[in-house]
Amino acid sequence: MLSLLLPLALLSGFTPVDAAQVAEAGTVLVKDEAVTLADSAERSVLGWREVSPEDVPPGAEAVPNVLLELLEGDPATEPLGPDQWALFELGVARAWRQTTGAPDVVIAVIDSGVQTTHSEFAGRIFRNPAEVPGNGVDDDGNGLVDDVNGWDAIDDDNDPSDPIGHGTEVAGVAAAALDGAGAVGVAPTVTILPIRACTSSCDLFTVAWAITYATDMGADIINLSLGGEAAHPGPLADAVAYAEQAGVVIVAAAGNDGVDLDGRSFVPATLPHSNVVAVTATDRRNELAPRSNFGVQTVELAAPGVEIVTTTIDSLGRYRTRSGTSFAAPHVSAAFALMKSVNPDLGPVDLIDIAGRHGLRRDSLVGATTYGTRLQVDAATMAASLTDIAGVFEHDIVWMALEGLTKGCNPPRNDRYCPDRAVTRGELAAFLHRALDLPAGPDRFVDDDHSVFEDHIDALAHAGLAKGCNPPRNDRYCPGRPVTRGELAAFLRRALDLPAGPDRFVDDDHSVFEEDIDAVARAGLTRGCNPPRNDRFCPDQPVTRGELAAFLHRALP
Q1: How many domains does the chain have?
Q2: 93 with 242, same domain?
Q3: pLDDT of residue 25
Q4: How many angstroms separate the CA atoms of 477 and 24, rounded?
Q5: CA 138 to chain centroid
Q6: φ/ψ (deg, to 5) at 49
Q7: Residue pair 340/102 in contact by the 8 Å Cβ criterion
Q8: In the chain, pLDDT over 70 holds for what percent of residues?
Q9: Domain check: are 264 and 137 in the same one?
């Protein structure tokens, strides 16, 4: 975790408020809109440039270029091994049924660099298409020569390798390869953009420059496992705003001091920009990890950050376990990468909100984070892939999809569920067949031949759950007819073998489905159709696909 050691103080004119702060970094950051990279020999970031204290113009907006220290996370207590517990808790394998990450989705890791030659990142280090490798020419005109695979902002060269290890560890959590060896990241097929901005320390100006560079290079997500107290973040805030305008989401570690960040200026985590998400850490019990910062107004998400297996810069390619919010943040960055892979149109606000709403709710997080949830990668990725599910049945639909009970309503794309559309009897057969894992059955009805649902219908009939739609003969199933709520009650009662219940509703008296309705009500599978009173069931009303998701979610938790 990178942490700011010293508070910032605003400078006025030539005289710094706190000379000690300036002395620590050695330079002052001055806002001069007239200065650009093109006409200055010095690096400029959105009008900010680095000058010595004596060169601050009178009346200029200026802040100390305060140093940030690279803090090591707590050493792991668990022996190193194949125990990537976090991936199991996050449901990563189920998310991979949809995607392991699109190669054109880019996570920028602004840190101590990344060991680009590590086998876990082979073939997935960013390639700048506008640069010709090794020709000694600034082909894309951005002031950097041969920035083919990222940039080293410390040594000002095109080799963003990691001499310390922190950045490589962060990158491994996000995107180590799915290659059957070592560790694996949450998004093992996305692209990593390495930017070295820190040694044992880094400063606001350099980190701000790195954010603008990552944005200009087309990064979708920027991971910042760094932060600290800064009352006047100056160019850092401007750089974050620059990324915000470009639609880039910034994932920031919340810090490891065990303090409430509400009312504090711990940057970049607490910056008030819509594209910034602050991430705290949870342990194996899915509880807030000791020493992790929190804040119901400022810390949006939580993710595993204790005893996390990841990559190292060891020449033998060894692995280690790490703890801290530095290693919680890349779980979120990678989850966002998977979400962008299935739905490229999602912006920062969408990503943050979907991940927050579809996380695992924990009491210890309710008063510590905005959403009160821990990241759940499978649910977030599935919710991102279905573009029409927002509403009262959203969580039920996501559950349906994760359980493999629905494939969508618009094949072959299947990025929609159509929650308001009536369920047909054929569709219901498919839903129940998958949900109950029913065996195949012989051909039973005369009107389902060549139907896409024929096998499902035959399985339902073989199990005794379908009796036909034309009594007393019942040689027809009517696969294209909408299912009524009364019929659904009958299907569910048979499928679950529900006992009878007391009379519950005022509008099902003398209905052929009355006993079925009372049984599903007793089992808690229905709440009625006229909230908040809910004294009616509406047995003749067609069942929507959204309602069906709710029925099945309650029936098969």
Answers
A1: 3
A2: yes
A3: 61
A4: 80
A5: 35
A6: -140, 160
A7: yes
A8: 91
A9: yes
pLDDT over 50 (residue 137):
yes
For residue 47, count other CB atoms closer than 10 A to its CB. Answer: 15
Residues 426 and 289 in one domain: no
Same domain (yes/no): 97, 186: yes
Tell me the C-alpha to C-alpha distance, in Å, between residue 207 and each of 165, 232, 236. 18, 14, 7
Would the pLDDT of 15 be above 50?
no
Looking at residue 54, the DSSP 8-state letter turns out to be: G
Cα(387)–Cα(97) distance, integer angstroms: 18
Domain shared by 452 and 539, yes or no: yes
Letter for the amino acid at 73? Answer: G
Which domain range does residue 311 map to?
70-385
Look-up of token digits 């680095």: 50
Q: Which of 440, 427, 403, 444 is nearest to 491 (CA)?
A: 427
pLDDT at 70 over 70: no
Burial of 347 (C-beta count, 10 Å sphere; 0-12/13-18/19+): middle
Q: Which two tokens stand for residue 73?
A: 């996370």
Task: Tally Cβ neighbours within 10 Å of residue 248.
Answer: 22
Nearby residues of 490 by Cβ (< 8 Å), 6 or more positions away: 513, 516
CB 332 within 8 A of CB 251: yes
Confidence grade of residue 38 (pLDDT, cut at 50, 70, 90): very low
Q: Across the strands, what pairs with 249?
A: 221
Q: Both 329 and 423 in a single domain?
A: no
CA distance 233 to 205: 9
Task: Give the end of a domain, one of 385, 410, 428.
Answer: 385
φ, ψ at 227 (rounded to 5°): 160, 170
Q: Which residues are 373's β-sheet partners?
A: 361
Claim to verify: residue 412 and residue 361 sit in the same structural domain: no
Peptide bond into 471 cis (omega under 30): no
Give the CA distances from residue 33 to residues 27, 60, 246, in Å, rounded to whole numbers and listed in that order: 19, 11, 20
Spatial separation of the C-alpha atoms in residues 169 and 311, rounded to whole Å: 5
> Which tokens hold the place of 401?
């999809």
Quote the pLDDT of residue 101: 98
How many helices (H) and strands (E) would you count in the chain? Answer: 16, 21
- The rounded distance, in Å, linking the Cα atoms of 176 and 183 is 6
Q: Are residues 436 and 453 in the same domain?
A: yes
Q: By the 8 A CB rule, do 211 and 159 touch?
A: no
Catalytic residues: 111, 166, 326
CA distances for 323 relative to 268, 290, 298, 310, angstroms? 20, 10, 21, 10
Instruction: Kindly report the backbone phi and psi dihedral angles of residue 337, in degrees, each rounded to the nearest multiple of 5, phi listed first.
Output: -65, -40
Last residue within a domain, chosen from 324, 358, 385: 385
Q: Are 188 and 175 in contact (CB under 8 A)?
A: yes
- Tell whether the model's pLDDT for residue 185 goes beyond 80: yes
